[in-house]
Amino acid sequence: MTDDVHLDLSRQDRIGVREALLAGPKSVDQLVTVLDQADAAGQAMLITRLEPPQLASLPGSLRSRIDYDASSRTGFFGDVGEPEGEPEVAVVCAGTADRPVAAEAERTLAFSCVPCLSVNDIGVAGLWRLMERIEDLRPMKAVMVVAGMDGALPTVVAGLLPGVIIAVPTSIGYGVAAAGHTALNSALASCAPGLVVVNIDNGYGAAVAAQRVLSAGR
Amino acid sequence: MTDDVHLDLSRQDRIGVREALLAGPKSVDQLVTVLDQADAAGQAMLITRLEPPQLASLPGSLRSRIDYDASSRTGFFGDVGEPEGEPEVAVVCAGTADRPVAAEAERTLAFSCVPCLSVNDIGVAGLWRLMERIEDLRPMKAVMVVAGMDGALPTVVAGLLPGVIIAVPTSIGYGVAAAGHTALNSALASCAPGLVVVNIDNGYGAAVAAQRVLSAGR
Amino acid sequence: MTDDVHLDLSRQDRIGVREALLAGPKSVDQLVTVLDQADAAGQAMLITRLEPPQLASLPGSLRSRIDYDASSRTGFFGDVGEPEGEPEVAVVCAGTADRPVAAEAERTLAFSCVPCLSVNDIGVAGLWRLMERIEDLRPMKAVMVVAGMDGALPTVVAGLLPGVIIAVPTSIGYGVAAAGHTALNSALASCAPGLVVVNIDNGYGAAVAAQRVLSAGR
Amino acid sequence: MTDDVHLDLSRQDRIGVREALLAGPKSVDQLVTVLDQADAAGQAMLITRLEPPQLASLPGSLRSRIDYDASSRTGFFGDVGEPEGEPEVAVVCAGTADRPVAAEAERTLAFSCVPCLSVNDIGVAGLWRLMERIEDLRPMKAVMVVAGMDGALPTVVAGLLPGVIIAVPTSIGYGVAAAGHTALNSALASCAPGLVVVNIDNGYGAAVAAQRVLSAGR
Amino acid sequence: MTDDVHLDLSRQDRIGVREALLAGPKSVDQLVTVLDQADAAGQAMLITRLEPPQLASLPGSLRSRIDYDASSRTGFFGDVGEPEGEPEVAVVCAGTADRPVAAEAERTLAFSCVPCLSVNDIGVAGLWRLMERIEDLRPMKAVMVVAGMDGALPTVVAGLLPGVIIAVPTSIGYGVAAAGHTALNSALASCAPGLVVVNIDNGYGAAVAAQRVLSAGR
Amino acid sequence: MTDDVHLDLSRQDRIGVREALLAGPKSVDQLVTVLDQADAAGQAMLITRLEPPQLASLPGSLRSRIDYDASSRTGFFGDVGEPEGEPEVAVVCAGTADRPVAAEAERTLAFSCVPCLSVNDIGVAGLWRLMERIEDLRPMKAVMVVAGMDGALPTVVAGLLPGVIIAVPTSIGYGVAAAGHTALNSALASCAPGLVVVNIDNGYGAAVAAQRVLSAGR
Amino acid sequence: MTDDVHLDLSRQDRIGVREALLAGPKSVDQLVTVLDQADAAGQAMLITRLEPPQLASLPGSLRSRIDYDASSRTGFFGDVGEPEGEPEVAVVCAGTADRPVAAEAERTLAFSCVPCLSVNDIGVAGLWRLMERIEDLRPMKAVMVVAGMDGALPTVVAGLLPGVIIAVPTSIGYGVAAAGHTALNSALASCAPGLVVVNIDNGYGAAVAAQRVLSAGR
Amino acid sequence: MTDDVHLDLSRQDRIGVREALLAGPKSVDQLVTVLDQADAAGQAMLITRLEPPQLASLPGSLRSRIDYDASSRTGFFGDVGEPEGEPEVAVVCAGTADRPVAAEAERTLAFSCVPCLSVNDIGVAGLWRLMERIEDLRPMKAVMVVAGMDGALPTVVAGLLPGVIIAVPTSIGYGVAAAGHTALNSALASCAPGLVVVNIDNGYGAAVAAQRVLSAGR
Fold first, then answer.
1. Global ipTM
2. Partner residue opposite C97 with nearest CB, options E19, E26, E200
3. Number of domains chain F contains
């Protein structure tokens, strides 16, 4: 099965982030191969969408080296440092049910030792909750806004703050929420200028985008 | 062609509003037949989506009896009274380009002599504009919120006001705005409780719903 | 986990209904946090889409204080009064399979002590069933019409009654019923004037809208 | 260009109807070729979706032999007889704007000398109009129900009558009416048993289906 | 729960078929109520989409009176006669995997004692299989054509036979087969004239339509 | 404007076909720039989707060097040879209205001097027309099957012939034909094995694929 | 049940490949019937989408004669030879998670004794991986490119190689990846000329198309 | 009409960019009102999607103060400075037909005096064109990638460069290109990490996002 996997070990040098492992659709054999290659290359690896049964099926020697977070379904394989300094990026989360996606973004940043500010449960149905925190968010270079259902929060935030605002639609909702498509489309069609968007539930991608913003600022 | 048309003359008695004439997809011959039947029944008639070329093609004897408003593409055929009393309903409009739909709602109310408060160009990209007017809107029994693109405004309004909030998505926008479907879906999937929705660009329907609210309150 | 939750305790004052708890997509830890916050604030809480396994996973001290209805998947947390007076709103249900959504609407009203009239299994395939009940429905200020599949019933009802007619499409049906989208679109495109619509299976939202109608009438 | 066209001259023998000419997407040269081949074969031909500019561009020698109906955009090329006998099929039309599609069905029947009963403008927003005519429709072997927007009428009719009910959705409506897709889907998802459906605006196809029903009954 | 159910006992008189029970989305309590009402009215009942776990959950006194067919998931509740006479209708099935839908149609006919001819596994990828049987099918008054995937078979059959051709798209296939939507749309957009269509997997509806055709022929 | 255009002059060497010019969405200035660059490089160029007004707006010095075919909207710029030898590929066209797409494929082949067999108007509604020609098509290495509406023809052909069968769905049809999406999806979901598909109306792409097949056979 | 199945035993003679058995949607009884018919005809059979529970449910006498590959879910029933000669076709796979679809293509070729070159995990996010292998791929007559998510790889490959390039979109991805529809549409809309496409996850169909290419070259 | 417009004059202070005027869907009266308000506030204004007939209908006194660019359909109203310094952002454009969207981005930057590098016509069908310019792009803080059709270019670029990569899908293409939805979805589903996306044809939004990146870096 080794032939199935060719790690992109030069990615850090090219674009500033290491290759990550999207576990969900892979077999356990494939996961083992990837982690063994990473180990052989001396590279720590972020694992996303790692389902508990997948984790449980890994050999103990690999499993014991994974720092797993159940809420975000992420694992850190190998040694990872601590975030340092004051946060320059924030993760804003509309509803409690959106937390797993926000957590994926936070863990992605933590894997790269990037500190972040988390602000939760401030959906626009109770607008005062956002208004209470808006000044804390103003200095941020990038703000990830995680929201499902109507997806109105990214637009409201992008109209209030000057940083790079990254909408992360989530699949929370039912009926016409359409597994996140409505939140996605609302963010893309936003009347607030310069809002950018990533795929539904893609906390990982939003965090990498935020890292690109921070790199651009150095 | 007369056989093609059977006016629902008992509608006022059954549901409290007269039948209206949706002109857009009808031929001039069909419009003439409808207006002649209304005339014979002594009933004034609201005409919606009446395009200027349709108006111009009507016989002068009919055309001269139509009070036409180009912005909303509506006509009043026959005698219509004046709105009386203080407004109990409002039409809130997100952007300047949404005005024709808002105007259709306002004209529908005017045809039934219902006064309304109009508040324009207060989209959420500049949230302070809504906040300046929110207390004016608080006493309203029904508030129609007309918005295209992201459709975030109805959700924000429904989280702030106690009246019946009727979202009227508009077809303004491009790309994923999808001719109003994104604004529609965002309103339907709203996290704000009890928001109700009508078809895209349906200012007429929103106004009739508002009239039903007023009737229910009497 | 407490930081994930910020109850909107001022919602009752702002818009006339208390915040409700949509349980479905939340973890048990999150549900506990919400209920503890509500308890601390002395606020009863309506819980919607509470799945039996979620209920079973709650600590007994919370579970015992929840009045659970399996058909509608709703729970009342804390003390709730009794409906009083004659019904001014009705829930009309097209088919037996649509009952859970109708029940969610009824329970939402009951949580706020609003009496309602329930009329079931009167889909248009046997039109006489609706006709037998139409006079009972005529005085209602708001009528929620719960229907899946073709979604024809809301249009028929809106053509016969003067109250505020709120279509509640359901996900009942298969093939092109499309999990409720056809019933939804049929209601939005209705030829009956002033019909308003909520999201698929959103009995809760319809009932809140009906409460807004009742408030407007006072 | 002659090579582009091969008339299916044996269709009448195989399936009981002659090949028709769908003019809309064809060039004038192609139309001439088809009509010349029909002429050479001594076969009259029904032309559908023949736009006035296409008609005007045909050579006078062909144009003069076409009995054209502008409402339905149909033409009869060659000699066509008169309908005989009492109608066994009906065309029921929901709204005035749906008439062109109903007319296409009526003309298709007329081309085959099949008499039909036409009932117009009886949409369900004013249900009494249908009820007044339902007994006239009861003996019909096939009833085509032409309706756009919500598409509720075919379901109501199929619940009331025993004949073959053929829904003909039309593209009339706006927003979520979606150019007839909502009316189509509502008919396909109908709770009334045994309703059958043809493509949007396909009055021609509905009439051919009705002819198949009549043939089956002989 | 009795109030949830109102059988349409006059349906046989109105439209020629008895009400059937779509079991799938109903609770066991609801199924019991329906069957008890049917029993009290002395009416046999066709049950469709009855899943084995539903059947197993019924009280033994009801279960023992149900003639269940696992392939079609249908049950006959109460006494049902035998088909008599030569078949005038046929069920044509494209692939082996489409058989359950074809079986639902066959059982629906059997419940009404209508004999039918079944022709299976004659998809167009091996066209000779259809050609071998085409003369057997020519005299049929109605032919149901059950096909998923590309949905080409109904068009080919409708071009070859004079009876009423009823396409029954199935949800068999993957990717762009889209759970039957491609087969459905292909049948609706058919170049073969007069093809009529029912909902995806709706063998029941096709059979009722065929019964309407037979009734029209008497 | 010259900076806007960088011809891919090495394409012939890399993949065996020269870059072509898709004219439709380009401005006249852009077309001029492309043709001038081609001219400077001594390269003849195939122009596709060249609308007559675009052609008319080109400078006479360029226009005079374009061999334009109105049916296919293609132009040959510069010297092009004659097809030689017996056809090894065929273009099969379902209906007369599909001819422009078939013609685009034929012209693309002609630009590369590839002879082809054209077979027209053999849609499956009259299956005998295909059967008359099937033996002519059997020796072909590649067969492009151009069809709109139901898109059944590619499946039937792929079940009968051994060559590479390339489905070219067209936008011909209305309603659920959906501008070619139904024909596209029907071909992709085909039960006939090994059918390959190109974009809607993409006669050019089909012809290039056929050239790739011929190259592979050498 | 035997009547449900009619093997297309002449397929090899007509189009050069034997009928295969798509197991997924079939019952075990149906699978047994097909295999028994194949056995009686002395024909080996490729089984695709054979799920492990289906395999386990087959009678041991059949199961023991199936060479099953779990990754691709394929089985060879009966005797199959060995691939011979140098590969003239290749299977290129974008990501590790796409391997099962690639494996289905490889197994389909192996069933017909066609050797192939496999190149894995060379998605465009690390473009150097493709560039390292491009010269190995240049001589191939057909290249299947298996990719999900963005589906960019087939376009890049088709711009670099002269053979027949067959895109095989996969259902890998989430959110707007839409179960393979985005990869499918990206391949169909490709700016690289002559790219052909098969259904999502259809490794079998791609391999049959490649066999058609090889046959055309002989 | 003045009441229809409320300029968000504090936007520059809040989020760092001035309000722009989306002209397309507005009436001439509305455009005049906006420009008059801007003038009164002493604020220059970027006008986007200003169609030539709109420009021509403006009063001469306003028209003469607009610096109009026909390719991008943008106008600068009032005094605008010159870009200064070395470019830190780039606009990369896949095909010539995508230029108008790229030009909108460039003009938006120019309005704010932000210099940019433009790289055109480097679509992936001829990959060498991108490779020739990749080192020029490496130092950029933000790279807008403008591409329609398959939308493969943003993914390839995001895999090669470390800056913030902003995909701008365009509506160029036909058939399944779906007016830009395929390019949009391909970018959102990208396998390249951290790619962010704006609405179809939204060059303006991409440029504002790039300005947010530059601000974050200061």
1. 0.97
2. E26
3. 2
